[in-house]
Amino acid sequence: MVSSVHAVLATGSGIVIIRSCDDVITGRHWLAREYVWFLIPYMIYDSYAMYLCDWCRTRDQNRGPSLTLRNFLSRNRLMITHHAVILFVLVPVAQSLRGDLGDFFVGCIFMAELSTPFVSLGRVLIQLKQQHTLLYKVNGILTLATFFCCRILLFPFMYWSYGRQQGLSLLQVPFSIPFYCNIANAFLVAPQLYWFCLLCRKAVRLFDTPQAKKDG
């Protein structure tokens, strides 16, 4: 529930920011800075909630030693790295290092949270053992669609928006912006591609299972 509320607020803030910035470089909106102060405690909370869930799961399974911080970090290294990058890299960039530029792109990054409510609902349905219901399958499709649009296509969209304003084609944009911008975007999109592949594999297993049973 907390993750879904945060996602709705972040997505709403992103939409407002994007619609308010006529210029993708110099356009300004106060939410681009102020919402970050809400993002910081959420990321800290989410990291703690992940640890608490893993600890409860390990305790309930009653297998081997209890969960240690080292084991938790090892099992969730990618997600923890993702949270750490947001807190220690993206937050300073968004709040001070970028100066008064790029509110539009901050709004785009906020939009990446649109898929979170569907991911959360999927986990709730799994806990309720509703994996074979129509709701679970429809939610899975919506998860894939929103994740692909707002976490992967988001980056070509930002390049396209900049190119349209500067009179450049999408293919020309990477060569007309600072190299570190391309590197930063590559680091941001890489884990999203990995997670999207995992979601696709899960979806394939979900929709293949009934047919496999039928064939068997």
Task: Please explain how this structure is put together.
The protein is mainly alpha-helical and 216 residues long. It has one domain. Helix content is 77%, strand content 0%. The chain contains ten helices and no strands. The longest helix has 37 residues. Its main location: membrane. It is a multi-pass membrane protein. One of its GO terms (biological process) is lipid homeostasis.
Structure described in brief:
It is a multi-pass membrane protein. By secondary structure, this protein is mainly alpha-helical.
Throw out a few tags for this protein:
216 residues, transmembrane helix, transmembrane, membrane, TLCD
Largest sheet: none
What share of the residues does DSSP label as strand, in percent?
under 5%
**Estimated radius of gyration:** 20 Å
Helix content: over 70%
**Number of separate domains:** 1
Low-confidence blocks of residues: 211-216
Question: What's the pLDDT, averaged over the residues?
Answer: 88
The end-to-end distance, rounded to whole angstroms, is 39 Å
Organism: Colobus angolensis palliatus
Keywords: Membrane, Transmembrane, Transmembrane helix
Protein name: TLC domain-containing protein
Membrane topology: Multi-pass membrane protein
